[in-house]
Write a structure and sequence with these properties.
Helix content: 55-70%
Order of helices and strands: EHEHHEHHHHEHEHHHHHH
Strand order of the largest sheet: 1-2-3
Mean pLDDT: 96
CATH superfamily of the largest domain: HUPs
Strand content: 5-15%
Largest sheet: 3 strands, parallel
Bound molecules: tryptophanyl-5'AMP
Number of domains: 2
Radius of gyration: 21 Å
Number of strands: 5
Distance between the termini: 31 Å
Length: 337
């Protein structure tokens, strides 16, 4: 069976990168897979979250899933902390994964920065929890943005080592699905930096809840370079792309939102000035992302609807993960008297 698991952290500001790198692809996969989409609140608290905001942020991510078109009748939508299998399997994986493996994780190094000694143990062990998220449901496919690739390789290593250690063929090795022309959306202020929830400048990202005026303003202010837009030949010239990261980023975003191949977009806009391209991009973004934001705001006014979806999701998620955890207990040798 093909089963998808993926998630977004309920830290502030669900943004265009989350949408194009992940959520939008999920919408398209829900017809062909058994899908579980999680709001990973246990991951969020690896860095400090205000308790009152965390609840609102959790509902905001749920609203983003629904507004983007995830159908709660076909997919399971829930928040991670309410299904005990995640934390429990993560502990078992803490005992399977090796320190050397986690020491190689680039995201920990980036997030912990210079204050490594002061980072939470949770931030360090985070990839083990992510492996547990997927494998508590025996997930086989994981649609994510490019930045999660290394974590998924670790999840495969953990599944493999668990199977080897216990002499079983129990966990599948989950496969990443990194899809579309915008798997790594960059900051609007700096083409060398990933668009992220934690960037200090709100102008670096498009939040899904930004209204039309703010979207237009942010696109107008987005960093570009002084040259006209390139033609399709740039797609075969890595050095030329590296020299124009902001241009490539905006083109990738446009191609993704327009659902057109990058070649076709480059052909259409080759030689144009950025000012014209930005107007077209802003119009398209208002029509697509702006629409999602409006629906999110509507949903957020009625927490009861969101909470109902989550409650049903929690139950459905437990119904899958409880029996898997019982089997895991047997495999590991935990007595179930
Ligand atoms: P998170 O919350 O940082 O991001 C959620 C999803 O959005 C993608 N993404 C991006 N894609 C393109 N461009 C960007 N600038 C960008 N920023 C974020 C991420 O790749 C991700 O798919 N550890 C994960 C959440 C997680 C998870 C899981 C995912 C926890 N358990 C199990 C899959 C399976 C994270 O922090 O995502």
């Amino acid at each position: 069976m093909k089963r998808i698991f993926s998630g977004v952290q309920p830290t502030q500001n669900v943004h265009l990168g989350n949408y194009l790198g992940a959520i939008r692809n999920w919408v398209r996969l829900q017809d062909d897979y058994d899908c579980i989409f999680c709001i990973v609140d246990l991951h969020a608290i690896t860095v400090w979250q205000e308790p009152a905001s965390l609840k609102a942020q959790t509902r905001e991510v749920a609203a983003a899933y629904l507004a983007a078109g995830i159908d709660p009748k076909r997919c399971i939508i829930f928040n991670q902390s309410q299904v005990p299998a995640h934390a429990e399997l993560a502990w078992i994986f803490n005992c399977v994964a090796r320190l050397g493996w986690l020491n190689r994780m680039t995201q920990f190094k980036e997030k912990a920065g210079k204050h490594r000694e002061n980072a939470s143990v949770g931030l360090y062990a985070y990839p083990n929890l992510m492996a547990a998220d997927i494998l508590a449901y025996k997930g086989t496919h994981v649609p994510v943005g490019e930045d999660q690739k290394q974590h998924l390789e670790l999840a495969r290593d953990i599944a493999q080592k668990f199977n080897n250690d216990f002499g079983v063929n129990y966990f599948p090795l989950p496969e990443p699905l990194i899809l579309g022309p915008a798997t790594r959306v960059m900051s609007l202020r700096d083409g060398a930096k990933k668009m992220s929830k934690s960037d200090e400048s709100d102008y670096s990202r498009i939040n899904l809840t930004d209204d039309a005026d703010l979207i237009r303003l942010k696109i107008r202010k987005a960093k570009t370079d002084p040259h006209p837009l390139p033609g399709p030949e740039i797609l075969t010239d890595a050095a030329a792309q590296d020299a124009r990261p902001e241009a490539m980023n905006l083109l990738g975003i446009y191609a993704a939102l327009a659902d057109r191949p990058p070649e076709a977009v480059l052909e259409e806009f080759a030689g144009s000035e950025f000012s014209r391209f930005k107007d077209v991009l802003a119009d398209l973004m208002v029509a697509t992302v702006g629409k999602i934001g409006r629906e999110m705001r509507r949903l957020q006014q009625d927490p009861a609807e969101i909470d109902g979806v989550l409650r049903r999701g929690i139950e459905a998620a437990r119904a899958i993960s409880d029996p898997i955890m019982r089997e895991v207990h047997d495999i590991v040798g935990f007595l179930r008297p």
